[in-house]
Each structure stands twice: as C-alpha cells, then as structure tokens.
Design a protein that fits this description.
Length: 80
C-alpha cells in the first residue's frame, strides 16, 4: 500500500542515512521503526539502537572501536 507522509528535512536525512547503512529501503526502515514504537516499553528497551541522536544536529552518532577517517568514508561511498 502506498501513502504520503511529511517528514522534516533533518529526520528525512537521518532516516535515509540509516536505511542506506542497513541496506534497506526508506519505507521498510520506517515500518520497522513504527513497529518498534508500538511494542511494549520492555521490548523497546531490548531493541534499542546502537546509536544516539545528537541534540544539536539531529544526526545519528555511532561509536566505533577506532576513529573513522575520510578514507573510510570514501571507501564506503565507493562500495555503494
């Protein structure tokens, strides 16, 4: 089923980036996030994402075991 929703620019960029990183479509990602939101609070705590949202930028902040370099970013972009 198709529908239209209005997503603020900042959140759209975040969702699009997250969908790309999970190699899924934006629609599938939004359905998954909606389903998580409808689950009981205890189930949501278990499925907490491995990232935080920066309150200043609204972007996802991921922690890694090492610093991410510009070369890492370029290699990721080239792989798509």
């Amino acid at each position: 089923m198709r529908t239209t929703i209005d997503i603020p620019e900042r959140q759209h960029a975040l969702f699009t980036s997250l969908a790309r990183s999970q190699r899924t479509s934006l629609g599938k990602l939004l359905v998954e996030l909606a389903e998580r939101g409808l689950r009981a609070p205890s189930a949501m705590a278990e499925a907490a994402p491995a990232y935080a949202i920066d309150p200043e930028t609204g972007l996802g902040v991921f922690r890694s075991g090492r610093p991410i370099t510009i070369e890492d970013v370029k290699a990721f972009e080239d792989a798509e």
